[in-house]
Amino acid sequence: MSKDFSGAALVKTTTMEKLVGKTVDTILNASPLTLRLLGNQKPWKGSKYKIPVKYVANSQGTSFDGLDKFSTTKTENRENMYFGPTGYEMPCVIDQMEVDVNATAKVTDLVALQLESDAQDMIDDISDMFYTAQTGKAFESLIDAYDDDTLGVTTYGGLDRSAYGLQGNYVNIGGAITLTAMRTQMNATKHGNRKANMIVTTDAVWGYYEKLLTPTVQTNLSQSDSRGYAKMTRTGAVGAGTDLRGQQGFDAIYHSGVPIVADEKCTAGYMFHIRDDDLSFYGLPSTMPGYKPVSFKSDLIEGVYANVPVVTGFSFSGFNTPIDQYGRVGHIILMGNLICKNPRFGGIAVGITS
Length: 354
Known about the structure:
This protein has a single domain (32-51, 79-217, 229-352), classed as phage-related protein like fold (Alpha-Beta Complex), CATH 3.90.1690. The chain is built from seven helices and 20 strands. The chain has helices at residues 9-14, 32-38, 96-104, 110-129, 142-146, 179-188, 203-213; strands spanning 23-24, 42-43, 49-54, 78-83, 86-95, 155-156, 159-160, 169-175, 198-201, 230-232, 237-238, 250-255, 258-262, 271-274, 279-283, 292-293, 301-302, 314-316, 327-340, 347-352. Strands 8-20-14-9-13-12-10-11 form an eight-stranded mixed beta sheet. Strands 2, 5, 15, 16, 18 and 19 form a six-stranded mixed beta sheet that branches. Strand 12 (250-255) and strand 13 form a beta hairpin.
């Protein structure tokens, strides 16, 4: 073990300690899905987001010859899903005396560091919401989007799931993942040429599937030619060995041409099939004077949420000074909601244990 010199009197009195310019994040877990959803927001429009749903076919078509009368019965076959915006806030509280002390020998901007840290903690909180059935004022989740009534989410967008064809594809595998089970779930999300185009699961389940592929994977032992796995980024999949150009990349293996990504926020034993053309976070920008868009540049923290750009729904209030405290208080907010336009193109598999 190397010697700790910090307690030596001569060192303490004659040298200045070196503070590394970046803070190392040792607590937050990565959520590729959250980066993808929050980093590619769509703009919110209107007081509620309305999606027309066709839930029955027109059954009035008839064969005819000669002068048979045509049907003139009107069929009501559409209804609207409604989603309202909601919000989440994270306070950023600054002790001004600490800032004053920091300014005397500044290596890291204390205010910028605190703001960046709180913003990343906020994203981490939201990633937990995306895997938990909505309660109260929380954002909608994957469970809300893809349940089929089994997990207790019997309505979606204000409509009864079973009555309006808003059921996802739920399956309890109850044991080992198999290629047959994967194919069955993929087929359940496929209608015509549209199907799930992203699969998200836990690190453990990702490893189980990787093991299934082992007999057919060719290992290249030449280090110079080894290219590793393809990567999933915030903006899409890139091939193995491709330059990520400043983006964070997460290893992706494929099933039926669909990338599978491990998400540390995913519930144990779960696997989600997602068609991300139908699943988006719709962000509502703030128009209140003083609130500005948030930039998630990660210059001060080496962590897992360094790849969310300035996006629609995030805003920062700026700092206010309390009348009875020597400090500053600000609030980061995100407004909008996570909306799935068509749950039948996604699914939830649970109970995967090996």
